[in-house]
Amino acid sequence: MSFKIKSEDYKGMENSENKKLLSRKQLKQLSEQLKPLKDSGEIETINEGLIRFCYTNEEHNDFKKFNEWKRLGFTIVKGSKGFPVWAQPVAAKKQEAQEKAAEEYEFFPICYLFSNAQVRRLKP
Prior knowledge:
alpha+beta, three-stranded antiparallel beta sheet, 7 strands, 3 helices, two-stranded antiparallel sheet, 2 domains
């Protein structure tokens, strides 16, 4: 199974200050492609699909957050770029300009994972 992001959708964005928007836009696009697998029960979460179908290969096959690697006695190799996944949703309020009524919604921040190929064991 292959998941693609159209590079023409992002021309010029990679060198701008919109890198976080680029990452979020890519993550949303990949998530939409994975939604049918979640609905069919093949994957439990979108993050599971991102890791399993988009990020895992022969080199990268174990993914953890920075603090999880640190707790296990590893450090991230300098210059390594994390793999974006969705973090836990945060309750937020959206203020309507005209009505002044606050509408509650969930905001999904981005979390970055690092793979086994991006870490090295700390010396004791």
